[in-house]
Amino acid sequence: MAEVKQPAALDDEQVLAYLKAQPDFLTRHPELLETLQLQHTSGSAVSLIERQVEVLRGRSQRLEDRLTQLLENARDNERRATHVHRLARTLIRAPTLAAAIVGLQQCMREDFGIDEAWVGVVPGLLKRSDIEGLHRLDAEGAVARLFENFLRTKLIECGPLSEVRARLLFPKAAELPQSAAVVPLERDKNLGMLILASRDPQRFQPRQGKLFLEMTAELVAAAVRAKLVS
């Protein structure tokens, strides 16, 4: 009598390949959903269908969290746009150069949480020195020496603000700023520089986005030049 050959046992790869090729297998055999067991992280066994529900719940929660984050980002962008619009309107409507600087500082504090704003203009354009927050950027002055590299490259710099720089720029500050952004005003025409500073050491970071800073610098430069020639 011929020996009956037993069918070869299927390995995991073959079972996996078969199930992938038959995605409706469990639909055709629903009784398996209650008999297949998966080990739960707590150690207890759960049915396949319970595990599927758990996975779907986790996926749903991740999608919900992602949607919440997107909505928060959209609200933040809307607030920023509103604040930039207010800044532009304030600078445009300012009757004098002094009023424009005061408006800049107020908008920075109230809308953007930035404690200090410093504007330096090259001496060929700025003759007066009696406007709080507006300074002549003399080539041989102390500020020019401390920011020599920036004035050479005219690239935006963000990060910690040293105590020496903070005391020089903001001697009247009740609490010295800890971080700052240094931005050129009219890089090609070399109008000067804008420095925004915060008491928060994390407010300005080297790798942060530069779009807001560039937009602010453009608005400030336009307002300053318009008031200088008016």
Automatic annotation (TrEMBL):
**Would the keyword Coiled coil be found if you checked this record's keyword annotation?**
yes
Q: From which residue to which does any coiled coil extend?
A: 46-80
PANTHER family attached here? DUF484 DOMAIN-CONTAINING PROTEIN (PTHR38765:SF1)
In terms of domain of life, where is this protein from?
Bacteria
Q: Which organism is it from?
A: Hydrocarboniphaga effusa AP103
**What keywords would UniProt list here?**
Coiled coil
The protein here is known as: Phytochrome sensor protein
One Pfam family from the record: DUF484
Asked if the record carries the keyword Coiled coil, the reply is yes
